[in-house]
Description:
Distance between the termini: 74 Å
Number of strands: 33
CATH architecture of the largest domain: Sandwich
Radius of gyration: 27 Å
Strand order of the largest sheet: 7-6-10-2-1-16-19-18
Number of domains: 4
Amino acid sequence: MRKLLILLSLTITSLFTSAQNNTSYWQQHVDYTMDVDVDVNKYQYKGTQKLIYTNNSPDELNQVFYHLYFNAFQPGSEMDIRLQNIVDPDGRMVTNLGTKENPKYESRIAKLKPNEIGYLKVLSLTQNGKPVKYQTVGTVLEVVLNTPIQSGEKVTFDMEFEGQVPVHIRRAGRNSEDGVALSMAQWYPKMAEYDFEGWHADPYIAREFHGVWGNFDVTLHIDKTYTVGATGYLQNPQEIGHGYEDKSLDLNIKKGEKLAWHFVAPNVHDFTWAADPNYIHDVLRTVDGTELHFLYKNDKKYKKAWNEVQPFTVQALNFYNENIGPYPWKQYSIIQGGDGGMEYAMCTLVAGGEKLRDIAGTVFHEFAHAWFQHLLATNESKHSWMDEGFTTYISTLASNKILKGGDGKPSAASYNGYFYVVKNDLEEPLTTHADRFNTNIAFGIGSYTKGSMFLSQLNYIIGEENVKETLKKYYNDFKFKHPTPNDIKRVAEKVSGIQLDWYLNEWIETTHTIDYAVAKIEGTNITLARVGKMPMPIDVTVTYADGSSEDFYIPLQMMSGEKPTTATILKDWAWAYPTYTFTTSKEIKSVEIDTSQLMADIDRENNTLEK
């Protein structure tokens, strides 16, 4: 019996320790050294990659995976087939052979010729000097290791690879609609992330990314007429010129048809570049020491807007530094490149910009991603609402204040998109993997709008000042990490003292909607009703017959706390009760729920009642 008790005790201890270990944060680490030769005429390149991989996980790894993103741009790829089957394909990736009223979409990828497709081919791969077995499965390289990588161990992978830049269809490619020669995102074999959930070796369908934190040392050999903008710091500016040089020193440009651009990027999780023989390169040095680089086409239709946006970008930097936390690197590049806008480490690719209004909002949004994704690196594939939503929230505040002269406060101005998908039964839970949404509109409204509303509505729940402090603490606690939804929830709880598990569950993990009504007024008694499934704390404004008004606040019982307010605080409302009645001191004229409209009530018609 004693032996059984000891065995049972050891088993329980082991389980407890395992559970504790599972909650201990760790993340993998990579050190890339790449040397790449680019043929700008054939749109092809060859390279070597040395990757030192550190296994910081508690697990033994028997295999690794690399992403080969450019393989998506081939007829018959998963990205191609998805375009042919989704009901609302991305308009940039298809051709409409029908009409606006009766569209007939054709995938642009399906029509690519062999010299127009994208590809990444691994020619050789070794682990600590010994060849390993591998196979290419679409956009993923599956590698079987010779010997497992032990917990805490470093191994070196040496690779030879070659690629072809596809015709520009989405994010990356050659000869974009703006005429940019090379927009080089997702261009190299990239180690997949392994974290507490396991490997994230998702095929590239169209969405965004999850990368391993590390350091990049990249040398690009390219035609000397091309100007390059990239992630990282240029190490040899006097050998390059092109606007990077110190003009007080002599240039030392070596002879030959190509220049060797040497970039180093510390503590990032991706490396991106763009190049064109007709770029203008402006450098704006800010007071805090950050260099802002602007690279855009030398075309008169772009010059005015790209010059006008520069001082506004400085103001955006200051806004984000103040309201989130300091930008930690000393360089950021805004590069005219692919379609729309897309964020990358220490840079963004932005399209167009013939007028300031065409580019400013995009620049503000993509720049904000330097914080919400490239500092606070959520898994965009699984939690796209965190990077896109939080970026939309903070860039909207910045745009409102800087570009529109507003007060920079949260508002319900963007809620209509959410109301549209709810009304048309298109909404899907935000726990849905980004590639698995049934429609693009459900993904877009969910990730950008409903994700942003998570924070704007949080102002309603815990108060504006608490949300401001939450964002700053979130930055301080999780910069250079991979935060999860629970992390932002816990930060908000610690700042506000309010329990928020119910909010994360209802708003993110379900499609429950909010609908509260003023059910009836009887004498000085007011009865409110929860019509929708999602519970909320309630702000109520009562206007009395004598013309005066009074604000009331009804906390949700499972919040176990109250937001800062000047309103009269009433007893808690437990969510299981469908109605709530309270009494006022004077004769009532009218009652209104949530005059701020920050609560995403899907039916405002029943929020007001006159006696």
